[in-house]
């Protein structure tokens, strides 16, 4: 039995050193880390702490999005005994600063975005999370390398160097703060022993199934829970190493993106809050409505009740195909999952596994067994802890996972004299020992996203506004959870909208109040002790919100607020009506429109039609789309099989037998600048001017053989899709001929669609997938053939692609072809057409660059050839 997490990590990371541990999006690409690499990063980080003089018991702030770097920093602290103080990525900088001062943190390790905010407040010292990297063996002199090897630095063996005997179960691992804006933030102290006490029973149960796991190895987890929360840590760091599993992190929460990742990366388990499961369910149901198959689906659902899960797999095979055949389970926590959503996924044959716990109990109290689900329950109590119900039904727990609180100086117990911790939640137990969640006694508001919002924090922000006479913040029910609603008593002449806008500015994004009502009387109803009667106030607010929505629909308009955030311009200077024009009134560029649709999808967890959105002219148009008007979808297809064997070999054969001879026959081009490719092995983003349909063949003929064979080419998405799905008015022969042309184009020429109007985000994501497989990508940034021999302006999207692929951009230019085309000739004399190759350009070192600026620079590079 491990005595510390340092020992636990060393044993499990060594056992799976060569296997993939973490994957994460890097622009349009995936970045992968093995267990051995993460171990090296952690060891190097621990050495760095030692060099800074930061030792056991001292505190370190860790603030950033989920990443392998975050994990490595956490493990490095666990190895050296440094106490981690994790911050939510969405936390306000002011709150994070107060926490750091309270714990007397010695170092900030945070993303560059947060570092900029902290720099304004004068918070030092700090280390950028992005700088936590795998040590490069080639760095430094031979003497330095020898010294690093002797010290064990940057190697898996260095785990042993920092597994100090003095680090034991009672030592503090982390202090987790869950509040938001209160004057004195309260933290929860979690020890190495607290975590190990919760890992032990899970590890013991998992051992029983390891012999079967080899048939589906590796188990891949798509983890959408923040690592700053303990439940996210269990599914992101503590449990996957027991299986040698792979954890994938993703920032995108849109249902379509989640489905794409699950299918593309062959994910086995999705780890998320209930809101994500609800959003995925809504997407499936919406797609069925659009296709006219909703009623058929409901009939199948009714018929599937009580049938074996394998039978249900077959009944819903069309739906399951969207997830891929390896996917089989959801694990959710942080909030309550409504019964309808649980039943929906269960009917489709998926396991919806719920867990229950609090930060004070190191996350886990109970969890459902994946193969023995207690329907509607939050699982059975884990071995090693006890649960009982108080007279009023409150859940009480005791055991090794119960943590302590931090008051700014020391630990304080959260249990009574008998060791029981009062959870503040109401529950029930059945005869089989399943625990059921019935509601909350505490006033904390838990949102559908699994985030805790404390009413007193929001009330404090409101009371700082001079127009407020009194206020109460209550939770309005939403799918088994709640969202905050402010109930206001204003001074004469005050504007509720102005007050709420001002108060929300001081709150973190997730805390902001989207709903508010005004209390109609001079004072709130109160108890004998003069406390507001929250049950009466909540009922009033709920009725007011429902009545308001029934009269005029959802009253809040997110469009103006998001435009302000995207453009950086105050809405006070803009016309803010439904008739406001997105371009003339707000000056939205094409790239800002892309950001707006992404922001709306992220906030409301919906999929919006990009085709219809591209036609939206006013705020009212966007709001109607958001409310779920008729959607017009243009589906572009990106066949992954064209990137795999044996298609790759067929394509290579066709290139030498057909394409290359035809190219040399039509126009034996003169190649200039090949010396710029000496030592360049790719992948590359190749860009070139666009003159005719033969451009692709000329570019490939100019590239060296080592680069020529692996090129995926972007082409007009609308034209390519028209071949795959021919117009119904065409006769059968012409439709079949179009499908054959599509098949030959995508297989032998490796074409993929790049839409001109909308849908290009998916195209860019496919380009990233091709690059991950070692392919170079060829794009003609003008988007259309030249009509006068002069280059058309490059589309701004090429800047976005260059910035997010993070690979060298190779400029090329075809000279002489336009003159041949204008003369109407089919053949050109050898050397008449010239293909010039420029020097590769790298943009990865400048992530802050504007995509439009990059596009202009690339056009200049091509024009200069």
The side-by-side strand order for the widest beta sheet comes to: 2-1-10-9-11-12-13-14-15
Cα-atom radius of gyration: 30 Å
Poorly predicted spans: 138-165, 552-556, 569-575, 629-633
Q: Which CATH architecture of the domain at 640-863 would you pick?
A: 3-Layer(aba) Sandwich
Mean pLDDT: 81
How would you describe the shape?
globular
Distance linking N and C termini = 66 Å
Question: What oligomeric state do these chains adopt?
Answer: single chain
Report the portion of residues in β strands. Answer: 15-25%
- According to DSSP, the number of beta strands is 33
Descriptive account of the structure:
There is one protein chain. This protein is of the alpha/beta class and 865 residues long. It is built from 33 helices and 33 strands. The strands form 7 sheets. It has a 9-stranded mixed sheet with strand order 2-1-10-9-11-12-13-14-15. Strands 27-33-32-28-31-29-30 form a 7-stranded mixed sheet, with helices on both faces. A 4-stranded parallel sheet has the order 4-3-5-6, sandwiched between helices. The longest helix is centred in the last third of the chain and has 20 residues, at 647-666. It starts with a helix and ends with a helix. Mean pLDDT is 81; it is low at 138-165, 552-556, 569-575 and 629-633.
């Amino acid at each position: 039995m491990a005595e510390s997490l340092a020992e636990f990590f060393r044993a499990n990371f060594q056992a799976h050193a060569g296997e993939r541990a973490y994957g994460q999006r890097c622009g349009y690409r995936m970045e992968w880390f093995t267990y051995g690499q993460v171990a090296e990063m952690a060891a190097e980080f621990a050495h760095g702490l030692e060099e800074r003089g930061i030792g056991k018991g001292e505190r370190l702030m860790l603030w950033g999005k989920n990443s392998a770097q975050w994990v490595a920093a956490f493990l490095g602290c666990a190895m050296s005994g440094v106490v981690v103080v994790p911050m939510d990525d969405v936390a306000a900088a002011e709150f994070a600063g107060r926490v750091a001062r309270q714990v007397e943190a010695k170092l900030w390790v945070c993303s560059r975005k947060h570092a900029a905010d902290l720099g304004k407040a004068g918070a030092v010292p700090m280390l950028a999370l992005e700088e936590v990297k795998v040590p490069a063996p080639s760095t430094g002199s031979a003497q330095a390398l020898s010294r690093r090897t002797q010290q064990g630095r940057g190697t898996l063996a260095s785990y042993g160097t920092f597994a100090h005997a003095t680090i034991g179960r009672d030592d503090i691992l982390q202090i987790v703060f869950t509040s938001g804006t209160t004057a004195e933030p309260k933290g929860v102290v979690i020890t190495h022993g607290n975590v190990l006490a919760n890992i032990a029973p899970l590890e013991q149960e998992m051992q029983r199934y390891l012999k079967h796991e080899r048939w589906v190895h590796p188990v891949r987890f798509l983890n959408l829970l923040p690592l700053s929360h303990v439940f996210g840590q269990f599914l992101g760091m503590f449990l996957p190493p027991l299986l040698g599993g792979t954890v994938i992190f993703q920032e995108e929460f849109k249902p379509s993106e989640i489905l794409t990742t699950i299918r593309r990366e062959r994910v086995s388990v999705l780890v998320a809050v209930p809101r994500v499961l609800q959003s995925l369910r809504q997407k499936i149901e919406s797609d069925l409505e659009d296709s006219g198959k909703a009623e058929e689906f409901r009939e199948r659902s009714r018929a599937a009740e009580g049938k074996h899960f394998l039978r249900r797999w077959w009944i819903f095979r069309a739906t399951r195909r969207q997830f891929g055949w390896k996917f089989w389970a959801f694990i959710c926590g942080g909030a309550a999952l409504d019964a309808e959503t649980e039943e929906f996924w269960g009917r489709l044959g998926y396991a919806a596994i719920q867990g229950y716990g609090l930060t004070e109990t190191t996350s886990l109290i109970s969890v459902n067994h994946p193969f023995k689900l207690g329907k509607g329950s939050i699982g059975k109590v884990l071995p090693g802890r006890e649960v009982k119900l108080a007279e009023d039904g409150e859940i009480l727990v005791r055991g090794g996972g119960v943590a302590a609180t931090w008051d700014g100086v020391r630990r304080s117990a959260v249990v009574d004299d008998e060791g029981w911790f009062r959870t503040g939640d109401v529950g029930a137990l059945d005869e089989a020992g399943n625990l059921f969640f019935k509601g909350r006694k505490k006033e904390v508001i838990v949102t559908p996203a699994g985030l805790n919002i404390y009413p007193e924090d929001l009330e404090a922000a409101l009371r700082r506004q001079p127009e407020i006479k009194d206020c109460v913040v209550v939770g309005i029910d939403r799918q088994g959870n709640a969202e905050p609603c402010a109930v206001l008593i204003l001074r004469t002449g005050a504007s509720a909208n102005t007050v709420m806008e001002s108060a929300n500015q001081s709150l973190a994004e997730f805390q902001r109040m989207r709903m508010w009502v005004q209390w109609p009387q001079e004072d709130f109803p109160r108890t004998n002790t003069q406390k507001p009667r929250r049950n009466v106030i909540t009922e009033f607010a709920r009725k007011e919100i429902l009545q308001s929505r029934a009269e005029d629909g959802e009253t809040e308009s997110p469009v103006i607020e998001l435009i302000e955030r995207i453009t950086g311009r105050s809405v006070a200077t803009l016309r803010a009506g439904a008739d406001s024009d997105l371009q003339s009134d707000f000056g939205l560029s094409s790239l800002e429109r892309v950001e707006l649709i992404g922001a709306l999808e992220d906030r409301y967890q919906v999929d919006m039609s990009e085709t219809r959105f591209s036609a939206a002219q006013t705020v009212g148009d966007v709001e109607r789309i958001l409310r779920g008007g008729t959607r017009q979808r243009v589906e572009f297809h990106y066949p992954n099989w064209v990137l795999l064997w044996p298609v790759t070999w067929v394509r290579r054969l066709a290139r030498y037998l057909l394409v290359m001879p035809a190219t040399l026959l039509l126009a034996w081009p003169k190649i200039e600048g090949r010396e710029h490719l000496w030592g360049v092995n790719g992948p590359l983003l190749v860009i070139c001017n666009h003159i005719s349909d033969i451009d692709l063949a000329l570019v490939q003929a100019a590239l060296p053989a080592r680069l020529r064979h692996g090129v995926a080419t972007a082409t007009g998405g609308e034209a390519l899709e028209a071949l795959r799905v021919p117009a119904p008015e065409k006769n059968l022969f012409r439709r079949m001929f179009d499908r054959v042309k599509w098949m030959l184009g995508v297989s032998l020429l490796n074409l993929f669609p790049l839409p001109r109007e909308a849908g290009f985000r998916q195209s860019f994501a496919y380009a990233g997938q091709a690059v991950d497989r070692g392919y170079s990508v060829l794009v003609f940034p003008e988007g259309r053939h030249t009509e006068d021999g002069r280059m058309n302006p490059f589309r701004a999207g090429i800047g976005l692609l260059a910035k997010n692929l993070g690979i060298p951009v190779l400029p090329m230019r075809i000279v002489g072809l336009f003159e041949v085309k204008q003369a109407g000739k089919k053949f050109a004399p050898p050397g008449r057409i010239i293909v010039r190759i420029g020097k590769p350009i790298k943009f990865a070192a400048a992530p802050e660059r504007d995509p439009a600026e990059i596009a202009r620079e690339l056009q200049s590079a091509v024009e200069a050839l």
